[in-house]
């Protein structure tokens, strides 16, 4: 609503070159609202509006923009303006910008940065993609254990305004090794002459810079952290990951899992949920057709199985009426199991070593589910085809639900073992496998019982 109301007025002020009125208005707006406004303007208009922002507000607004608009604005700015803008960004936001921009622009920006900022950015960029190192911000407060509380508080007052957070103060030795993390309230409540080491309890949670970002999400959720210290292999504190970055990772991972579970093959930069209205028909088509074709060819096997039992079907046509219900129920049971396991693996409630323990439970649960569904269809089988047909339907339902559930539970473990995302064991894949296996079992049982 904000955007629709203000765009015509902003465009008119730009036409009149009434930059004073524009500046007075936008400096009162939230960065996310300004970013939304810039996305709706032409590149030239957006660049003019952007230049009217105060430096700090410009940095916050720039980090909210889509990559294409960031690139367009950068092309309109001078080298000095770009340098000032990039230096206003947080290190992790700067890294995200460099990852998305074309190489020529990235190289140009890096050359404009002071040596210290350039080294810091390149160091962050050296970490593997989707590793915790890519989220590091080195702007934290660290004190020495032999300082007094008074000395520590003076240091915090002097340096705290540039830190991501001062709620947690980190304690490091002279080599930079992490020793502890201490809530700021302990410093406030302590006697000024107390040593920092007297406030330490030695209990802290940290993570390696090379760990996957999902591990950081798990730790923050498990221990209710507002910031997570990141260390190297020797325990040296490299920086922290703050909860706002963790929320971004959670959103990205959820979107990625959604794409895989739905069998939509979008690349990481193509967010279906955010961009479905703007994406071209060609791109939407290309994102969906690969999985569809794979599953189409897999389903051809189901047709091949049916052709092998033409004699059985010709004599007992009634069997065909139960086939969709049986394989659909098995597929649904498999999808349920898969969804539960993908979620459990993602949040760390289940580990690879738990598979053997869970398989027994799944057998019991799926047998009970299959029996419940089988009894429901058993009496329909009697009415339509007689007692023998109803026995075939009952047995097939139980067996197929068990197999579907075991497949749904096991595939996420298998993909995790192969270092693949467990969400790849998607609903379309499981239901298609259940179609092929379920059809084979159904007609094998029918042939053996009815003939």
Name of the CATH first level of the largest domain: Mainly Alpha
**Average pLDDT rating:** 81
Helical fraction equals: 55-70%
SSE order, as H and E? Answer: HHHHHHHHHHEHEEHEHEEHHHHHHHH
Strand content: 5-15%
Number of helices: 21
Give the strand tally: 6
Q: What is the fourth-level CATH superfamily of the largest domain?
A: SLC41 divalent cation transporters, integral membrane domain
Instruction: Please identify, by name, the CATH architecture of the largest domain.
Output: Orthogonal Bundle
Largest sheet: 3 strands, mixed
Radius of gyration: 30 Å
Content-based structural category: mainly alpha
If you had to describe this structure to a student in words, what would you say it looks like?
The strands form two sheets. Strands 1-2-3 form a three-stranded mixed beta sheet. It has a three-stranded mixed beta sheet with strand order 4-5-6. α13 packs across α14, α16 (281-308) packs parallel to α21 and α18 (318-347) runs parallel beside α20 (387-417). It has three domains: 2-126, Alpha Horseshoe (MgtE N-terminal fold), CATH 1.25.60; 142-247, Roll (CBS-domain); 276-450, Tetracycline Repressor, domain 2, CATH 1.10.357. It has helices at 2-16, 19-26, 31-39, 43-51, 55-62, 67-76, 79-88, 91-100, 103-112, 115-125, 149-159, 184-189, 213-223, 243-261, 272-275, 281-308, 310-315, 318-347, 355-385, 387-417, 427-450, and strands spanning 142-143, 168-172, 178-183, 207-208, 227-231, 237-242. It contains 21 helices and six strands. It is mostly helical and 451 residues long.
